[in-house]
Please model this.
Amino acid sequence: MIELSYWTTPNGHKVTIFLEEAGLPYNITPINISKGEQFAPEFLAIAPNNRIPAIVDTTPADGGAPISVFESGAILQYLAEKEQKFLPLDLRGRYDALQWLYWQMGGLGPMAGQNHHFVQYAPERIPYAMERYIKETNRLYGVLNKRLADREFIAGTYSIADMASYPWIVPHERQQQDINEFPHLKRWFESIKARPAVERAYEIAKKVNEAPTVTKESQALLFGQVAR
Model:
């Protein structure tokens, strides 16, 4: 059984997509980040960076005690390796998928996240910051579009690289991106959107978080944290 600490963000969606695709049994513990639940001691015990998602696998492959994993990319890799699904077993295929997983973790996610912040949530509009991250998001869309020009999925076959990237493309309009400018990416996006497991994952999100809004009060919890 996988115990999933989750909220309805792109990083959270990655894990529910995998779990639905793999047909694994799991329980969701909602961590409402707008209410500060990510700072609860029991959550910090498995996610010391106070960010969702995190998992506890109660039946790890080595038969030992439950194991916890935080960081969405590490979770995807852990689950893929345990289940031997959605990550090629051959050396070249494996690292083809992993390099694009890390591309998402180090590029698409952080840059699109900064885009969201400065375009949607920043208390003052800073034109330089907005333009910086809108343009970098656009550049990364172009990288992915080029990658998909001659293959169905990012690493050839459907993998955790696709599961990691798709949720960060879902809010393309909020990111000030015209997906029609990227025909290969758009074709890939629509094909993943239509997958039954992906549809189920997003339906689960609607049930967990019926009102996905960020208030002034929650912004104080989400942005501008310091070590204290």
Observations:
- The radius of gyration is 18 Å.
- Residues 91-121 form the longest helix (31 residues).
- The chain has two domains: 2-85+200-222, 91-194.
